[in-house]
Structures are given as structure tokens and as C-alpha cells.
């Protein structure tokens, strides 16, 4: 039976993305988004919860992230859940950290919002939609 591994998120970038040149043709962008949600407790008090999600984008999407996204940028992301596994050098214990590999990204800031970011480049189309079909590995 086939499995499904799909994640859809809307949130704000927590800090400026980190972009690394992997090879001459391949870039990797790493960033974290904050997702805010609120709920009402039985006593009527409204509580807000923020969840932080690490993301990585490759190649074409990484270029968009590098050129247009900054701390505070609002984004819609589609991707799949990945797990990094390693052994802690100090304790010898197995560790796992989950992240989202971004396969589709839509910038949700309005043109006015995007222009207010100090280091953001001008954006011809505030809702750039990128699908990365050129991942440096097979899915």
C-alpha cells in the first residue's frame, strides 16, 4: 500500500534564511517558520501557541528564498516531512530532528509588505509560485 507524506503550512520566517552553495548548480536554503494558533480554554481564556518548524529548500526554490524572503516574510509551503538521524557525540544516544523539505512555496506578503523589508529585493510578482522539480536526489 502506498504511503502519503505531505505537509502544508502557512507561517512567518523567524530569521533571515541561511543559504549554502552545495555545488556550482545547487543551493540549499535553511530557515524556520513560526506557526501561530489560538484556542479557547473551557474557562473562556484564549491561549496562543507558537510552533517552530525547520525547513529546507533546494535549487530553484532556494534561489527564491535567498533573493526574496527575510525575517517576518509570510509564506505558504508544501513539502514532505524528513528526519535527520545521528548519534550524539557526548552521550552516545540516537537523536532525531524533523524538518520540512519544501517542494512548493508561495510568498504571501503583499507588495507593500515586501517593500517594507529593509534588505528585500524588489519583487515583480508578490505571489511567486515555485515548484522544484530539480532536486539533487530521487524522492
CATH homologous superfamily caption: Nucleic acid-binding proteins
Overall geometry comes to globular
Question: Structural class of the secondary elements?
Answer: mainly beta
Strand order of the largest sheet: 1-3-4-6-5
Q: What is the H/E order? A: EEEEHEEHE
β-strand amount: over 45%
Structure write-up:
This protein is mainly beta and 139 residues long. It has a single domain (7-37, 49-131), classed as Nucleic acid-binding proteins (OB fold (Dihydrolipoamide Acetyltransferase, E2P), Beta Barrel). The chain is 12% helix and 50% strand. It has two helices and seven strands. The protein has a five-stranded mixed barrel. A hairpin with a 6-residue loop joins strand 5 (74-87) and strand 6. The two termini are 17 Å apart.
Amino acid at each position: 500500500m502506498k504511503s502519503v507524506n505531505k505537509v502544508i503550512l502557512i507561517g512567518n520566517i523567524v530569521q533571515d534564511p541561511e543559504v549554502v552553495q552545495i555545488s556550482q548548480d545547487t543551493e540549499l536554503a535553511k530557515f524556520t517558520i513560526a506557526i501561530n494558533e489560538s484556542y479557547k480554554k473551557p474557562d473562556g481564556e484564549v491561549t496562543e501557541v507558537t510552533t517552530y518548524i525547520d525547513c529546507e529548500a533546494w535549487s530553484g526554490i532556494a534561489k527564491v528564498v535567498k533573493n526574496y524572503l527575510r525575517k517576518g516574510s509570510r509564506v505558504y509551503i508544501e513539502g514532505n516531512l524528513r528526519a535527520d538521524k545521528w548519534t550524539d557525540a557526548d552521550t552516545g544516544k540516537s537523536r532525531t530532528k524533523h524538518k520540512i523539505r519544501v517542494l512548493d512555496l508561495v510568498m504571501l506578503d503583499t507588495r507593500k509588505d515586501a517593500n517594507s523589508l529593509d534588505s528585500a529585493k524588489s519583487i515583480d510578482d508578490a505571489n511567486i509560485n515555485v515548484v522544484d522539480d530539480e532536486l539533487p536526489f530521487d524522492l
